[in-house]
């Protein structure tokens, strides 16, 4: 039986724990292992990518990847699991968009729009300066800024290139192509052997 992309979960993972990229790499590998131990079976794992910190100057470069998972958990249960994994791996939430030992973001889940279309659209349309100051009160699905972030879309293109945004209507590859070339050029494959 073929799985539908709409019946899966996409998780973005990043770490810029240190200027030593090997530490960030280890954090991501550990987080993927913990996902599988928490009923989030990895079906596909993207390549690992080196990306500049966002916003610029928020710390060392990141390593980012994306994981396509199969799970029976609800979106809220997954979010709780992701926060628990972050805590296990030493994440302390002090500064929004600051340096992170590990960052696990629920990007999409079973094609859900949450909490509702109007709220999600409001967050999608929110200007960047307000995004940096406000924190949503509810889980938003799909992630309201995924279409703006090459560091999410490039790894996501490895695991779900034809996933289609349920609000915007664009596929992962189309959203990636719509980004400025400069944003796409900042992303490079991470070589764990170097």
Question: Could you characterize the architecture of this molecule?
Answer:
The relative contact order is 0.19. This protein is 34% helix and 17% strand. Helix 5 packs antiparallel against helix 6. The chain has a single domain (5-189), classed as 7,8-Dihydro-6-hydroxymethylpterin-pyrophosphokinase HPPK (Alpha-Beta Plaits, 2-Layer Sandwich), CATH 3.30.70.560. Strands 1, 2, 3, 4, 5 and 6 form a six-stranded antiparallel β-sheet that branches. It has seven helices and six strands, in the order βαβββαβαααααβ. By secondary structure, it is α+β, with helices and mostly antiparallel strands. Catalyzes the transfer of pyrophosphate from adenosine triphosphate (ATP) to 6-hydroxymethyl-7,8-dihydropterin, an enzymatic step in folate biosynthesis pathway. Belongs to the HPPK family. It holds the Pfam family HPPK.
Question: What structural keywords apply?
Answer:
single chain; 194 residues; alpha+beta; Alpha-Beta Plaits; 7 helices; 6 strands
Name the CATH architecture. Answer: 2-Layer Sandwich
Given as residue ranges, the uncertain stretches (5+ residues, pLDDT < 50) are none
Query: Could you say how many structural domains there are in total?
Result: 1
Structure classification: alpha+beta
What form results from the Cα inertia axes? Answer: globular
What would you give as the CATH superfamily? 7,8-Dihydro-6-hydroxymethylpterin-pyrophosphokinase HPPK
Q: Based on DSSP secondary structure assignment, what is the total number of beta strands?
A: 6
Main beta-sheet strand count, sense and barrel state: 6 strands, antiparallel
Alpha-carbon distance between the termini? 40 Å
Rounded mean pLDDT score = 89
- How many H/I helical runs? 7
> What proportion of the residues form beta strands (DSSP E)?
15-25%
CATH topology: Alpha-Beta Plaits
Rg measurement, Å: 16 Å
Share of helical residues: 25-40%
CATH class: Alpha Beta
Enzyme class: transferase
EC number: 2.7.6.3
Family: Belongs to the HPPK family.
Function: Catalyzes the transfer of pyrophosphate from adenosine triphosphate (ATP) to 6-hydroxymethyl-7,8-dihydropterin, an enzymatic step in folate biosynthesis pathway.
